Structure formats: structure tokens, C-alpha cells
From TrEMBL:
Its main location: membrane. The chain crosses the membrane at residues 45-65, 77-99, 124-143, 155-176, 196-218, 230-251, 286-306, 318-339, 345-363, 375-393, 413-433. It is a multi-pass membrane protein. Keywords: Amino-acid transport, Cell membrane, Membrane, Transmembrane, Transmembrane helix, Transport. It is found in: Cell membrane. Belongs to the branched chain amino acid transporter family. Component of the transport system for branched-chain amino acids. This is Branched-chain amino acid transport system carrier protein. The gene is brnQ.
Amino acid sequence: MKNILLFIKENLAVGLLLFALFLGAGNIIFPPLLGQQAGEHITSAMIGFLITGVGLPLLAIVAIAKAGGDLQILANRVGATFGIIFTSIVYLAIGPFFAVPRTGSVSYEIGIVPFLPEGAADHWAPLLITSVIFFALILVLAINPSKLVDRVGKILTPVLLGVILLLAIKSFISPMGEPGAAIGKYTSSPLTEGFVQGYLTMDVLSALVFGIVILQALRDMGMSDTKKQVKTTIFAGIVAAIGLSFVYIALGQIGNTSINAIGTFDNGGTIIAKSAEALFGTLGTIILSATILLACISTAVGLLTANAQFFNKLFPSVSYKTFLVIFTIFSAAITNVGLETIISASLPVLLIIYPLAMVLMVLSLFDNFFKGGKIVYILALIPTFFVSLNDGFKQMEITITPYVNILKALPLYEQSLAWLVPAIVGALIGFVIHKLTKK
């Protein structure tokens, strides 16, 4: 019995670590927006969102564990050049290009804007001042790594969960209002729209990077057996998945019932901030603001540190601190374009790279079945890239007519999932060629 309890305790600790890694400020702002926009179709939309926001990250963690914990090693199965390019793009996406500037913008939207005088948020100065102070603090913490960030993370996760739990309970007991009408693609295809919107959490991309953190934690616990590591990772992934599901569903419910009380917004940060005020008054806003600010600091330090370490390994002639300074200044500059612009700019890129990440991840889980045949990866990823590239163009309102006319014949084209069938067909052709070549 003691052994069983010890096993659960150790595995639960790893699961909570994984959950804490995932739970950043970005995960807080998208479910409320989905809740508002999905309206009466909230259930279908949330199922789609949970697939990309919870289910696929869990598979990604398992895939990375089986691959030895390193994204570049996994991507190298396609080719060394692809491994370097794809891994670099993933790091930059969850680093200085999108995810880190998003932490600065969310800090401003939730932590600062509610306390500004009326109309002040329309001026550029408050955001600039906030971003300078925020990223100066981030730089100090990241240049001088200490247990401070780790402690903040350990304290922050239960506090953030507690705040969300309070908001969720209050919104269920005394809802702010009824759901509004679904808008946009949520009216006709809520499931697939929720699936695509789940890309914005960047959880699959993050999972591909976090895998090595989990494996290192298991090795520190004295676990060296690969099979046991994978089993423990699956258990930890389930714990994290349950936690993330609760967070997403609770925040989706808050957004879904908020329209009558606060109105509609295109910014999830504004929705959750105004909902906190509507449910608990000024005290609710203060508690939420402080918690989100800490979450943003913890997330930004972790992501910038990971990026600086990766590119320092890739280019040893440039020091870790140099990369850190460059990425921090770049992130601060991008923050000043505003949260909505950052999200709008990130979606076309995510529509291109997310399918590649998902196909790579799924194939890696079946790697033993086709004995690591490189041709299987290549023939699955090439059509995936060309189709998802068009999805990115479509989001940017760029149309290449002959290209589009061909792709329109594919299933799920309108839902930005047309890459799915070509990826499967390409993998099957690659598998047949691999088998014939071996013979």
C-alpha cells in the first residue's frame, strides 16, 4: 500500500509540474473569447478546443518522451536541415515572436488597464511604460537564474487555480446572463473552429519543448528506465490534461455567460478582467490582476531562458546573455503593437506550422511500425506543408487562384483542415515505398 501511495505521490508531483509549465497567461485569455463567440454552440466548440489544447499536447509529451526528450532529435527523423529549421521556428514562435510578447500584452490588459483613468488605455504611453518595466524585470530574473522564479511558479499555480475556481463557482451559481448568439464560423462549424482556435494556446508547440524538462525531472528522481519514463510521463500528462480541461471549461463558461453583464469584446484578456469585476467587484479585479502578472513573469522568464539556451547551443560563438538581451528587447518591441495584433499575426503562422507539428508528432508515435523510414515522414510532411501554407495565406487574405482552385477540392478546406487527408495519403505512400525499397 505504501509503495502504491509513494508511486501516486511521485507521479502526481510530475503531473503538477507539467500542468504548471502549461498554465501560462495565454491559456487564460482564449477560452473566454471562445465562450463569447461560440454562444449556444459552446459545447461543440469547447470539444474541438480541448482536442488541440489538451489532447494533442498530451500526445506530444509522450512522443517527445519516446524520442528522448529533444525536439530537434525528433525533427531530425525528417532530415538534419529540417530538424534545425523547424525546431528554430517552434522556439521563436513560443518565444520572442508571439508567446513572450503576449505575456507582456496580457499583463497590460489584465493587470494595468482596469486601473487606468478612462480613455488612458487609448494612448500609446501606458503600454510602452508597462512593457519597459515588465521586460526589464524579466531580463534581470533570466540573466541571474535563481530559485525565485521556481518558487513563484510553485506558489502561483495553486493561487491561479484558486482564483479561476472562485470565478467559475460564482459564474455557475449566479450566471452573469444567458449565452449570446454564435458568430463567425462558430455558427456553421463550431467543432472545427474550436479545433483551429486551440492552435492559439501553442500548447502542442510548448509540449514539444517541455518534454525534456519532464524527462530531466524523472532522471533527477532516479528513473533511468525508458519504458518507465514513458509510463510516468503518460500519467503526468493525464494529470495535466485534467487540470487544463477544468481551466478551459471554467473560463469558457465565464465568457459564455458574460455578454449581458460586460458586452462583447475581441480580446479575451478584457473579457476575463471585466468578468472578474462583474462577479467580485474591485477586489476580484485586484486579485486577478496580481495573479496574472505573476503568471506572465514566470512564463516569460521560462520561455526566454529556453530560447536563449537553445540558440546558444546552435550558435556557441554568441553567448547566452547576448541572445537573452536581443530576445528580451525584441519581445518588448512586439508587445507594443497590442494583444489583438499579436494574436492576429500569430494565427497565419500557427496555421502553417501546427499541422506540421501534429503530423510529425503522430508519425513519431508509430515510428517502430515503419522502422523510422524517413520517406514516410517526408511524403507526409510535404503535402501537409503546401496545404497548410495556403491556410496561412488565406488567413492573411492572400489568394493564389490556381493554387486555391486545386486545394478547394480537398475535404475540410473551409475549416482550415484540408491538410489532414493529404498527410494520411502521403504517409501511406511513403510506407509502401519504404517496404518495397527494403525488399
